[in-house]
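Reading a protein record of the kind used here takes little practice once its layout is understood. The reader may check this reading against the record printed directly beneath this paragraph.
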Amino acid sequence: MASVSEPNAILKVVLIEDSRELLALLTEMLNEIPTVKVVASAATEQDALEVFKTTSADLAIIDLELQSGTGLNLLKNCCQPQALDHALHFLVFSNYANRVIQHRCMELGAKAFFDKSFQLEELLDFVQSRALQKRVGYST
């Protein structure tokens, strides 16, 4: 089994969030999980696309409303086969959590959807479980 200090045992996360306060909070909370590391962030759709191309992250947590562009467009552009040169899984963390939006995000390729207003703990638990799966060698 891989030790936590091995780079491949760490789940690398990218945060796509335009609220500086929430970005700081999420970064701090995720980095407290020993097998998780936030490796990059972006506040716009265009910056997110650049981050996805230049960072070999495992997981992206995206908001739907960004400074410019949308998380839905990111899902449309990045969840297509061969859109990126590495496997990147997407979670959505948004205030726009009605069933239609959730369903659309899942159709576009999101692995899960979490409502910002009350599902922060569930988001952290999900990320921690993905990190554990990666550590023991299961597909994330």
Observations:
- The domain at 7-135 is CATH 3.40.50.2300 (Rossmann fold).
- Residues 120-135 form the longest helix (16 residues).
